[in-house]
Design a protein that fits this description.
The protein is α+β, with helices and mostly antiparallel strands and 135 residues long. It has a single domain, classed as 4'-phosphopantetheinyl transferase domain (Ribosomal Protein L22, Chain A). Helices cover 39% and strands 29% of the residues. The protein has a 3-stranded antiparallel β-sheet with strand order 1-5-4. Strands 2-3 form a two-stranded antiparallel ribbon. Mg(2+) binds at residues 8, 58.
């Protein structure tokens, strides 16, 4: 059963300008230390990466139905790569339950980049058996 769906699109130029003005402050507000360790070198790739992850967290907040604010902050979820490179969302189960009312949810995430934009979509799905999703 689908619990929530969220989508967000971000202009790469907007993120480039923010990083040029206040990189450290912006990255610390959006990312956990572990996530910051995954940011690639090189300006173009860094901008794409940051924009995609920013869009993903905004999409997650929309799927949760809270937006970014009191119930859910950027620091409440981590987007990290699996060994294959596929981005996955890690979030505290009790926080997820408090927001959605569901004890077990799978978070499906897709991120894409173009020349001017990054886009992310999140689908929260209630699952009775999570064994297929947890190693």
């Amino acid at each position: 059963m689908i619990v929530g769906i969220g989508i967000d699109i971000v202009e790469l130029e907007r993120i480039r300008k923010i990083i040029a003005r206040q990189e450290k402050t912006f990255l610390e507000r959006i990312f956990t230390k572990r996530e910051e360790g995954n940011i690639p070198q090189g300006e173009a790739r860094k901008i794409e990466f940051v924009a995609g992850r920013y869009a993903a967290k905004e999409a997650l907040a929309k799927a949760l139905g809270t937006g970014i604010g009191k119930q859910f902050s950027f620091q409440d979820a981590e987007i990290i790569p699996e060994e294959s490179g596929k981005p996955i969302v890690l979030m505290n189960d009790s926080l997820l339950e408090n927001i959605t009312g569901q004890k077990q949810c799978i978070c499906h995430l897709s991120i894409s980049h173009g020349e001017q934009y990054a886009i992310a979509q999140v689908i929260l799905e209630k699952r009775e058996d999570l064994s297929a999703y947890r190693g």
